[in-house]
């Protein structure tokens, strides 16, 4: 039973994370009825809730809830001591406190921008919470804390998003963030220009300029070229010289 409950909680948490942008630490607003039920059933909220939601949590309440518990006297004295340990979130009823249920409803108005969970045993409050999309509901049954399945309002809201009728900004950011983590975001590449078939290169049609050869100065010491004398002529000349000598 515990494994099934944990499985369902994991599934519901994935739903709220992906579709409504819930992130750790999860902020849980608790009223006096939930604190009283936890005390009666010996549930350690601070120790057990993070394990159940599989993430860090911040337990919160409001001044109106504390005022309500104080006004109820000794019967809810233990619940008041528990609630006093939680973070007190500012509400709009500082001068004129309202009931705990009315105060918690005001904290999740306008689309629940702070991503609050609501933990309550008040059936009337739970019914009103379910009419607001994107608000997870926690309650206690048989000595265990239970995360309620997403309400029909939340499911209808998600279906409308998928039909592109509603596009919340946080979902765009979540998708982009997941793409970056998975390395799916590609940098824009410069498109290579296709070479068009054309005529010859105009530069190749230009007349080539003749290179002006630098006049080299004659070197001071030039090697004299030796002439090869014709051997036959030299021999004939030698014979004629000899004949002239004999004569």
UniProtKB/TrEMBL annotation:
Ranges for region Disordered: 183-247
Record has Metal-binding as a keyword: no
Keywords of the record: Nucleus, Ribosome biogenesis, rRNA processing
Comp. bias (Basic residues): 221-231
Compartments in which it is found: Nucleus, Nucleolus
One Gene Ontology term from the biological process aspect of the record: endonucleolytic cleavage in 5'-ETS of tricistronic rRNA transcript (SSU-rRNA, 5.8S rRNA, LSU-rRNA)
Residue stretches making up the UTP23 sensor motif region domain: 191-208
Keyword Mitochondrion tagged: no
Gene Ontology annotations for the cellular component aspect, listed alphabetically: small-subunit processome
Gene3D superfamilies with a match to the protein in the record: 5'-nuclease (3.40.50.1010)
Coiled-coil zones: none
Listed GO MF terms: mRNA 3'-UTR binding; mRNA 5'-UTR binding
InterPro entries cross-referenced by the UniProt entry: Fcf1/UTP23, PIN-like_dom_sf, UTP23_sensor
Predominant subcellular localization, coarse grouping: nucleus
Entry-linked PANTHER family: RRNA-PROCESSING PROTEIN UTP23 HOMOLOG
Family recorded in the similarity comment: Belongs to the UTP23/FCF1 family. UTP23 subfamily.
Purpose: Involved in rRNA-processing and ribosome biogenesis.
Protein's recorded name: rRNA-processing protein UTP23 homolog
Name of the encoding gene: UTP23
